[in-house]
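WARN no homologs supplied; continuing
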Amino acid sequence: MKDIYEIANNTLLVPYGITEKHLQQTLQHASDRSIDMADIFLQYSHREKWYLEDGIVKDGSFNIDCGVGIRSVSDVKTGFAYTNDITVSSLLKAAKNAKSVVNSTQLEGRVKVSDFLVKPHKRNMYDVNKLLYPVCDPISSWTEKDKVDFLKYLESGAYSQDKRIKRVMIRLKGEYQVILILNNEGVISADVRPLVSLSVTVIANDGKRYESGYEGIGSRADYNFLINDDKGFNCAKEAARIALLNLEAVNAPVGVMPVVLAPGFSGTILHEAIGHGLEGDFIRKGTSVFTGRVGEKIANSECTIVDNGKLSGGASGSINVDDEGTPTQCNVLIEKGVLKGFMYDKLNARLTGNKSTGNGRRQSYAYIPCPRMTNTYMLPGKHNVDEIINSVKKGIYAVSFSGGEVDITSGKFVFATNEAYLIENGKISYPIKNAMLIGDGMTVLTKISMVGNDLKMDSGTGMCGKAGQEVPAGVGQPTLRVDELTVGGTG
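OK structure emitted
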């Protein structure tokens, strides 16, 4: 396996005549004795998107981006500058600008740059046998013809499912990212991050109405992931199945009732309505409903929720190190119903007297890192799925979601289902449409009464938005029974 530091050096430094010594000098200019924290984040990425409809690639793009972000932090103040001109002079200018923002209200000249020495840097070492994903470039793993042929193959597969399938839209994305991070604590870190995703949307018509179905898959791997075990073809079939299912669906009932959340993608509710409230910046500012509640029992004793950036198997939210160079870990957030802790980046950890949990993430070199989730999921409980379904006299079985809104600080949410069913007398009956689940994260936690033994992660296409940034994130859960949840619809 290739050495990631060699890749980072050959990608980010050598082509521009930059050495680690130049980076040390840059960090020196971003630091002095008034600076609590300073770092340099270098990133190279190239990504592509393909969109096929009616057998034609109607849209496509290829993008290359490379640059550096430099940060200086003093107490709560952050100075940040970035540039895509990777030259020694531009790096030094960005470092000085970042520090000047922090020092703008302080006495100038009280300390000289030369009075402060940055520590010699040591590499964060990686066991190549324990890297969470392969060191590979997805985009170069297939030819352009391979990609177009694959998309057409999936399209024909979707149409072949039923004559009522009228339209198929397929998106294929690939990304290759290399990062290098230095900080004034004397640590240098690197990572090479592949990411691929496939999404299929199908429109069906039975002569009376149109309905849609959606399915997506993704992984930190190369494009061959999509053909292993026919994953791509099965994705297209699943989108067609959901579209056809929705042709048979009736309007959802309305009211407060038990809701059973299926394993896997339903973890989106945990992520949005609970996970964001456990991020360190909201905790530090006191804007989260979970602030000051560590040690309190806030959920059923069967509920244990973790955020695990070390999840193997190509999980999209996994990263070997976060975007501040901290190795990721498995953080227990709620254990047996008791709130245990939060997710921190370096800034919010320092300001609250904690350590970074490896959750400092950023969209690119042009953004400041902040606390973000990686792979957030609930651990399995003791109940089997039949037991949970049988316990519901009348309610909803929600399998997946097509969208929604959430207030991050309060945890209040509204989610629209993509696939859902009515439960009657302990049995799953007919499919329903237009079901909206309405509630808040804190209440959901207290209303969970049964946790399944069938933990499943999402399919790998999740993206999380916060502070104007998007990063890949994974979600998951076992089957859950929520005793009371408001269901909105047209029924």
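The radius of gyration is 24 Å.
OK
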